[in-house]
Write a structure and sequence with these properties.
Keywords: DNA-binding, Transcription, Transcription regulation. This protein is an alpha+beta fold and 231 residues long. Helix content is 30%, strand content 36%. The protein has two domains: 3-64, Winged helix-like DNA-binding domain superfamily/Winged helix DNA-binding domain (Arc Repressor Mutant, subunit A, Orthogonal Bundle); 69-226, 3-Layer(aba) Sandwich (Chorismate lyase).
Protein backbone atom coordinates (compact mmCIF):
# COMPACT_ATOMS: atom_id res chain seq x y z
CA UNK A 1 0.00 0.00 0.00
CA UNK A 2 1.44 3.43 -0.95
CA UNK A 3 2.36 5.40 2.15
CA UNK A 4 0.24 8.42 1.22
CA UNK A 5 -2.81 6.13 0.86
CA UNK A 6 -2.30 4.75 4.36
CA UNK A 7 -2.02 8.34 5.62
CA UNK A 8 -5.17 9.24 3.71
CA UNK A 9 -7.07 6.41 5.43
CA UNK A 10 -5.98 7.67 8.84
CA UNK A 11 -6.92 11.23 7.88
CA UNK A 12 -10.45 10.11 7.01
CA UNK A 13 -10.82 8.78 10.55
CA UNK A 14 -9.60 12.15 11.85
CA UNK A 15 -12.13 14.01 9.68
CA UNK A 16 -14.96 11.91 11.07
CA UNK A 17 -13.90 12.90 14.58
CA UNK A 18 -13.48 16.59 13.74
CA UNK A 19 -16.88 16.96 12.09
CA UNK A 20 -18.23 19.01 9.21
CA UNK A 21 -16.76 22.52 8.87
CA UNK A 22 -13.89 21.95 11.30
CA UNK A 23 -10.42 23.24 10.40
CA UNK A 24 -7.75 20.67 9.61
CA UNK A 25 -4.59 21.01 11.75
CA UNK A 26 -1.54 22.47 9.95
CA UNK A 27 0.20 20.21 7.46
CA UNK A 28 3.49 20.36 9.39
CA UNK A 29 1.81 19.30 12.65
CA UNK A 30 -0.04 16.43 10.97
CA UNK A 31 3.13 15.18 9.29
CA UNK A 32 4.93 15.14 12.65
CA UNK A 33 2.00 13.40 14.36
CA UNK A 34 1.75 10.71 11.66
CA UNK A 35 5.52 10.31 11.38
CA UNK A 36 5.67 11.03 7.63
CA UNK A 37 7.18 13.69 5.39
CA UNK A 38 5.29 16.86 4.55
CA UNK A 39 5.25 15.77 0.90
CA UNK A 40 3.42 12.54 1.81
CA UNK A 41 0.96 14.44 3.99
CA UNK A 42 0.41 17.02 1.25
CA UNK A 43 -0.34 14.29 -1.30
CA UNK A 44 -2.90 12.66 1.01
CA UNK A 45 -4.59 16.02 1.67
CA UNK A 46 -4.73 16.83 -2.05
CA UNK A 47 -6.49 13.55 -2.77
CA UNK A 48 -9.03 14.19 -0.03
CA UNK A 49 -9.70 17.63 -1.53
CA UNK A 50 -10.24 16.00 -4.93
CA UNK A 51 -12.52 13.41 -3.30
CA UNK A 52 -14.62 16.19 -1.79
CA UNK A 53 -13.82 15.28 1.83
CA UNK A 54 -11.78 18.44 2.40
CA UNK A 55 -12.15 21.97 1.07
CA UNK A 56 -9.21 24.34 0.75
CA UNK A 57 -9.91 28.05 1.22
CA UNK A 58 -7.18 30.33 0.00
CA UNK A 59 -5.60 32.25 2.85
CA UNK A 60 -7.77 30.52 5.46
CA UNK A 61 -6.74 26.87 5.54
CA UNK A 62 -8.30 23.48 4.85
CA UNK A 63 -11.65 22.42 6.29
CA UNK A 64 -13.79 19.31 6.57
CA UNK A 65 -16.23 19.54 3.66
CA UNK A 66 -19.97 19.10 3.69
CA UNK A 67 -21.22 15.85 2.10
CA UNK A 68 -21.46 15.79 -1.69
CA UNK A 69 -24.74 16.70 -3.32
CA UNK A 70 -26.17 13.60 -4.98
CA UNK A 71 -28.17 14.42 -8.08
CA UNK A 72 -30.46 11.91 -9.83
CA UNK A 73 -29.72 10.98 -13.42
CA UNK A 74 -33.28 11.71 -14.50
CA UNK A 75 -35.39 14.24 -16.38
CA UNK A 76 -36.13 16.36 -13.32
CA UNK A 77 -35.64 20.02 -12.53
CA UNK A 78 -32.29 20.96 -11.01
CA UNK A 79 -34.21 23.26 -8.67
CA UNK A 80 -36.48 20.52 -7.34
CA UNK A 81 -33.65 18.00 -6.97
CA UNK A 82 -31.56 20.42 -4.94
CA UNK A 83 -34.39 21.60 -2.71
CA UNK A 84 -35.21 17.97 -1.93
CA UNK A 85 -31.76 17.78 -0.27
CA UNK A 86 -32.31 20.91 1.79
CA UNK A 87 -30.12 23.13 -0.40
CA UNK A 88 -30.99 26.50 -1.90
CA UNK A 89 -30.49 26.44 -5.69
CA UNK A 90 -29.17 29.41 -7.64
CA UNK A 91 -28.31 30.30 -11.23
CA UNK A 92 -26.16 33.02 -12.69
CA UNK A 93 -26.50 33.72 -16.41
CA UNK A 94 -23.22 33.77 -18.30
CA UNK A 95 -24.55 33.77 -21.88
CA UNK A 96 -28.03 33.93 -23.39
CA UNK A 97 -27.84 34.40 -27.15
CA UNK A 98 -28.41 32.77 -30.52
CA UNK A 99 -25.88 30.82 -32.55
CA UNK A 100 -25.91 28.90 -35.82
CA UNK A 101 -26.16 25.13 -35.40
CA UNK A 102 -23.11 23.13 -36.42
CA UNK A 103 -23.44 19.61 -37.78
CA UNK A 104 -23.42 17.90 -34.36
CA UNK A 105 -25.85 20.34 -32.76
CA UNK A 106 -28.19 20.22 -35.75
CA UNK A 107 -28.28 16.43 -35.51
CA UNK A 108 -29.06 16.53 -31.80
CA UNK A 109 -31.92 19.01 -32.25
CA UNK A 110 -33.29 17.55 -35.47
CA UNK A 111 -32.79 20.76 -37.46
CA UNK A 112 -30.72 21.83 -40.44
CA UNK A 113 -27.10 22.91 -40.20
CA UNK A 114 -26.84 26.67 -39.82
CA UNK A 115 -30.33 27.13 -38.36
CA UNK A 116 -30.56 29.46 -35.33
CA UNK A 117 -30.29 27.95 -31.85
CA UNK A 118 -30.88 29.43 -28.39
CA UNK A 119 -27.77 29.08 -26.21
CA UNK A 120 -28.27 29.49 -22.47
CA UNK A 121 -25.15 29.15 -20.32
CA UNK A 122 -25.52 29.43 -16.54
CA UNK A 123 -23.45 28.80 -13.42
CA UNK A 124 -25.40 26.55 -11.05
CA UNK A 125 -24.96 27.02 -7.32
CA UNK A 126 -26.02 25.39 -4.05
CA UNK A 127 -26.33 27.60 -0.99
CA UNK A 128 -24.41 30.29 -2.85
CA UNK A 129 -21.47 28.06 -3.83
CA UNK A 130 -20.87 27.28 -7.54
CA UNK A 131 -21.16 23.59 -8.34
CA UNK A 132 -21.83 23.40 -12.07
CA UNK A 133 -21.77 25.12 -15.45
CA UNK A 134 -24.74 24.22 -17.65
CA UNK A 135 -25.16 25.10 -21.32
CA UNK A 136 -28.51 24.34 -22.94
CA UNK A 137 -29.28 24.50 -26.67
CA UNK A 138 -32.82 24.70 -28.08
CA UNK A 139 -34.13 25.31 -31.59
CA UNK A 140 -35.28 28.91 -32.21
CA UNK A 141 -37.77 27.67 -34.81
CA UNK A 142 -39.44 25.40 -32.25
CA UNK A 143 -39.24 27.85 -29.32
CA UNK A 144 -39.43 31.35 -30.85
CA UNK A 145 -40.94 32.84 -27.67
CA UNK A 146 -38.36 31.42 -25.27
CA UNK A 147 -36.48 34.66 -24.64
CA UNK A 148 -39.75 36.48 -23.96
CA UNK A 149 -41.15 34.02 -21.41
CA UNK A 150 -38.06 32.62 -19.67
CA UNK A 151 -36.73 34.17 -16.49
CA UNK A 152 -33.00 33.47 -17.11
CA UNK A 153 -32.28 32.67 -13.46
CA UNK A 154 -35.42 30.55 -13.08
CA UNK A 155 -36.19 26.94 -13.92
CA UNK A 156 -35.92 26.23 -17.64
CA UNK A 157 -37.80 22.93 -17.27
CA UNK A 158 -40.71 24.64 -15.52
CA UNK A 159 -40.84 27.31 -18.23
CA UNK A 160 -40.84 24.70 -21.00
CA UNK A 161 -43.55 22.59 -19.40
CA UNK A 162 -45.80 25.24 -17.83
CA UNK A 163 -45.55 28.03 -20.38
CA UNK A 164 -44.54 26.37 -23.64
CA UNK A 165 -46.48 23.11 -23.27
CA UNK A 166 -43.51 20.74 -23.59
CA UNK A 167 -43.89 17.22 -22.21
CA UNK A 168 -40.59 15.48 -21.51
CA UNK A 169 -40.64 11.74 -22.22
CA UNK A 170 -37.11 10.40 -22.40
CA UNK A 171 -33.48 11.34 -22.67
CA UNK A 172 -30.00 9.97 -23.15
CA UNK A 173 -27.14 11.01 -20.90
CA UNK A 174 -23.42 10.39 -21.20
CA UNK A 175 -21.18 10.97 -18.17
CA UNK A 176 -17.40 11.29 -18.35
CA UNK A 177 -14.54 12.84 -16.39
CA UNK A 178 -12.68 15.82 -17.82
CA UNK A 179 -10.34 18.64 -16.87
CA UNK A 180 -11.90 22.09 -16.94
CA UNK A 181 -10.64 24.80 -19.27
CA UNK A 182 -9.18 27.93 -17.62
CA UNK A 183 -12.47 29.78 -18.30
CA UNK A 184 -14.59 26.99 -16.82
CA UNK A 185 -12.38 26.69 -13.74
CA UNK A 186 -12.66 30.45 -13.16
CA UNK A 187 -16.45 30.40 -13.44
CA UNK A 188 -16.65 27.49 -11.00
CA UNK A 189 -14.07 29.00 -8.64
CA UNK A 190 -11.95 25.86 -8.92
CA UNK A 191 -8.43 24.92 -9.95
CA UNK A 192 -7.82 23.24 -13.29
CA UNK A 193 -6.43 20.20 -11.47
CA UNK A 194 -9.80 19.51 -9.83
CA UNK A 195 -11.61 16.54 -11.45
CA UNK A 196 -14.84 17.49 -13.22
CA UNK A 197 -17.87 15.43 -14.25
CA UNK A 198 -19.18 16.24 -17.72
CA UNK A 199 -22.73 15.27 -18.70
CA UNK A 200 -24.11 15.33 -22.25
CA UNK A 201 -27.89 15.04 -22.50
CA UNK A 202 -30.38 14.86 -25.36
CA UNK A 203 -34.07 15.06 -24.40
CA UNK A 204 -37.18 14.19 -26.39
CA UNK A 205 -40.90 14.79 -25.95
CA UNK A 206 -43.81 12.36 -26.01
CA UNK A 207 -43.86 12.52 -29.82
CA UNK A 208 -40.18 11.62 -30.04
CA UNK A 209 -39.14 15.12 -31.15
CA UNK A 210 -35.83 16.49 -29.83
CA UNK A 211 -36.27 19.18 -27.17
CA UNK A 212 -32.79 20.15 -26.06
CA UNK A 213 -29.10 19.38 -26.09
CA UNK A 214 -27.40 20.04 -22.76
CA UNK A 215 -23.76 20.13 -21.71
CA UNK A 216 -23.32 20.21 -17.92
CA UNK A 217 -19.96 20.44 -16.15
CA UNK A 218 -19.94 19.71 -12.41
CA UNK A 219 -17.26 19.99 -9.74
CA UNK A 220 -16.23 16.45 -8.86
CA UNK A 221 -15.57 17.45 -5.25
CA UNK A 222 -19.09 18.77 -4.71
CA UNK A 223 -21.45 16.65 -6.79
CA UNK A 224 -22.16 12.96 -7.38
CA UNK A 225 -24.87 11.22 -9.41
CA UNK A 226 -27.23 8.35 -8.73
CA UNK A 227 -29.21 6.25 -11.20
CA UNK A 228 -31.93 3.67 -10.55
CA UNK A 229 -31.30 0.50 -12.55
CA UNK A 230 -33.93 -2.07 -13.42
CA UNK A 231 -33.65 -5.28 -15.49
Amino acid sequence: MPLHYAVKTRLVELLDRLGEGAALPPERALAAEFGVSRWTMRQAIRELVADGRLRARQGQGTFVATPKLIQPLALVSYTEALRAQGQTPGREVVTFDEIAADVELAGGLGIGEGEPVHRLERVLSADGQPIGLETTYLSVARFPALRAVLEPTGSLYRCLTDQLGVRFAEGEELVETVIATPREAELLKATQSLPMLLLHRNSRDTDGRPIEVVRSLYRGDRVGFRATLRP
